[in-house]
Amino acid sequence: MDARTRAYYELRAQVAKALAHPSRLLLLDALKQRDRCVCELTELVGADQSTVSKHLSVLKQVGLVSLRKEGPMTFYHLECPCLEGFFKCMESVVSARLNILQHEASR
User: pTM of the full predicted structure?
Assistant: First the structure.
């Protein structure tokens, strides 16, 4: 594998890793609707502001969100609207998995 191909897969892995946390998925779902300030996102996640800011930093680092400052407020924006298709695909996998787990539990 050449260096360019390796870098490509490394970046894909970084995006996947950034998505691999329930709070980050919740943040992305909230940002699909509209830009939000950190205070709103903190309330939504139910964690302290520093924790939410760390999650947002991870998402920003891989290019999924951006931020803008308005005075003392920081607003986050979803930079990757194509996530909707990814989430729909993921939902079909999750639904199928839940059905299997429920079937196994009812035996």
Answer: 0.85
| Residue whose entry in the numeric block shows the structure tokens 């969100």 | 65
Edge-first strand listing for the sheet containing 65-70: 36-37, 73-78, 65-70
| Domains: count for the chain | 1
Tell me whether residue 104 is in a domain. no
Per-residue pLDDT tens digits for 12-56 = 999 999 999 999 999 999 999 999 999 999 999 999 999 999 999
CATH number, residue 55: 1.10.10.10
Domain membership of residue 48 (yes or no) is: yes
Q: Which ranges in 20-61 belong to alpha helices (H)? A: 22-33, 38-45, 49-61
pLDDT in tens, 66-99: 999 999 999 999 998 888 888 888 889 999 999 9
